[in-house]
Design brief:
The chain is α+β, with helices and mostly antiparallel strands. The chain folds into 2 domains: about 50 residues, Winged helix-like DNA-binding domain superfamily/Winged helix DNA-binding domain (Arc Repressor Mutant, subunit A, Orthogonal Bundle); about 120 residues, Hotdog Thioesterase (Thiol Ester Dehydrase, Chain A). Helix content is about 35%, strand content about 30%. Strands 1-2-4-5-6-3 form a 6-stranded antiparallel beta sheet. The chain starts with a helix and ends in an 8-residue tail after the last strand.
């Protein structure tokens, strides 16, 4: 075997290991990590039969959606990445041009709020959940093309009341913080 094919084999092994640890790495992220072109990453993924990021996310979302109790998968804003009903959850929202202000390309705040609020509701282990109070803080503008990762964690539970903290990030930078007081409703008040 030539030296080039050995480095290709090793690079593909590393690529598979990185994606095993973090399936949400983009081709751009992988090209930087492995110091090769994006096209090389795409060819390596094809060789290894690893789908692109969007397809990987859809596969994860499909496997998590049946666990949702308080809403259907289509009602969640963003793509569900991880869900521990009654404890925590993570969603991803790629910012598209339609979500931004035309002039500045900054995402409109209601998208950040909707992602965080719907995730806060989704992690509750009940059939019917409503938001009673939200205290939010926007930390920096988010731009077209960025990916917003939201993580929700139940901090306090008292009876049918839950305090849920949501932290939204772009890469390692916090862009939004929210605390949501959500309530479960008794099943008899939910219309059938």
């Amino acid at each position: 075997m030539s030296r080039e094919s050995l480095s290709k084999i090793e690079r593909q092994r590393q690529l598979a290991r990185y994606l095993e640890r973090d399936p949400f790495l983009t081709d751009v992220d992988l090209s930087k990590i492995l110091r090769v072109s994006i096209q090389t990453i795409r060819l390596d993924r094809l060789d290894l039969k690893i789908p692109e990021l969007r397809e990987r996310l859809k596969n994860v979302a499909r496997s998590k959606a049946p666990q949702l109790k308080s809403m259907t998968g289509g009602e969640l804003v963003g793509e569900l990445v991880d869900l521990k009903v009654g404890a925590s959850g993570i969603s991803l929202l790629p910012v598209t041009q339609e979500m931004t202000l035309r002039k500045t390309k900054i995402v409109r705040g209601h998208h950040l709020f909707a992602q965080a609020n719907s995730l806060a509701v989704a992690i509750i282990d009940a059939e019917a959940v409503v938001t009673g109070l939200a205290r939010v803080s926007f930390k920096r503008p988010v731009y077209c093309g960025e990916k917003i990762w939201a993580k929700a964690v139940i901090k306090i539970k008292k009876g049918n009341k839950y305090m849920v903290k949501v932290t939204s990030q772009v890469k390692d930078e916090i862009v939004f913080l929210g605390r949501f007081l959500v309530f479960t409703l008794p099943e008899e008040v939910v219309p059938q």
